[in-house]
Design brief:
Elements (H helix, E strand, L loop, with lengths): L21 H17 L4 H7 L7 H6 L12 H14 L1 H21 L2 H12 L5 E4 L9 H4 L3 E5 L2 E11 L7 E8 L6 E7 L5 E5 L12 E11 L14 H32 L1 E2 L2 E2 L4 H26 L5 H25 L11 H13 L4 H13 L6
Parallel strand pairs: 1-4, 2-4
Antiparallel strand pairs: 2-3, 3-7, 4-5, 6-7, 8-9
Helix pairs in contact: 1-4, 4-5, 4-8, 5-6, 5-8, 8-9, 8-10, 8-11, 9-10, 10-11, 10-12
Length: about 400
Amino acid sequence: MSSLGASLPDADFYQCEASLNRFEQQKLATLREFLAAEVAPYCVQWWNDGEFPAHILPALAKLGLSTAIQQGYSPLFAGLVIAEITRVDTSLATFFLVHHDLFVESLYQFGTEEQRERYLADALALRTTGAFALTEPDHGSDVAGGMTTTARREGESWVINGAKRWIGNGTFCDHMVLWARDAEEPGKVRGFILDATLPGVSRSKIENKIALRTVQNAHILLNDVRVPEADRFVGVNSFQDTNVLLQRSRAMVAWQAVGAQLGAYDCARNYALSRLQFGRPLASFQLIQAQLVTMLGNLTASLAMMKQLTSQPATTMDQVALAKAFTTSRMRETVALGRSILGGNGIVTDYGMAKCFADAEAIFTYEGSHEINTLIVGRSITGLSAIV
């Protein structure tokens, strides 16, 4: 960035972070220091190589940011943590979200005291890693009614058969929260803490991705896998029981859309200030300024929506669906404008924008596609369902 850029307003144009208490602001500053030192210089190469940086997990754990709301932090702080990690590297933020906001949160929400005693401390400290196995090869948006993975009770064990796909952290995790339909009572869905090394569990990495290349998504086959009754979530009986988790994780993906826009704006503005064309900084041209302002407007609107969502005493899935649909739509335009500002340099990962641009496509789709979230809101405001 030019010397001028160092004194320019922050991307948090309406000063959303001022609503955090002083301790949370300091904690967020510590996270930024960690990301600047340990992630930003290397994340493009991790993405290019398609390799997960397991070596940074001990340092990440020491930040003490796992399941922030469970620790007493504000919902706004918890969202900004996800946004800040995404701002630097969407892949690391996705790992963080899957492990902490889905796997660890499942232990809090559904686990017995005995299960938490066995699993929670190691998971919080990232001595062990977790995944969340819900999506299947033939069932994504319709998995609630179409789940084909089954669990059959045999004495003090459950025998599980089926397949899961697109499971983040799935190639290397120690445990995963696994969802399966009860073979004897098909109307019931069971939840398990699955030891990923059990006989009958086969995991393979999904290759050739154009987004989130650092995330190790897995295709998982389950062939007569025996899980002890002690590792079943006894309070889970239906897909509806998962909604408390899915609503929270969907909101966190909307925060990822904010973070992706922050990252794109940072990259585009820095480039426009330092790149000379026709003897002048690129940022001095009217069309470039117009693009930067649109990017800033998109991310500011998205950030304001998420701040309002976290300030409410209670939220509904309909409200979260609107946030996810809106912020990811704005994100798509923002990253496209940023890529345009970088011109040809915007299609190579060397400058950072190409990675941000590609990763946005995954955010647009997972945790409920844009179309499904739109139809959830449409059903809410009309009383008519367009989803079969």
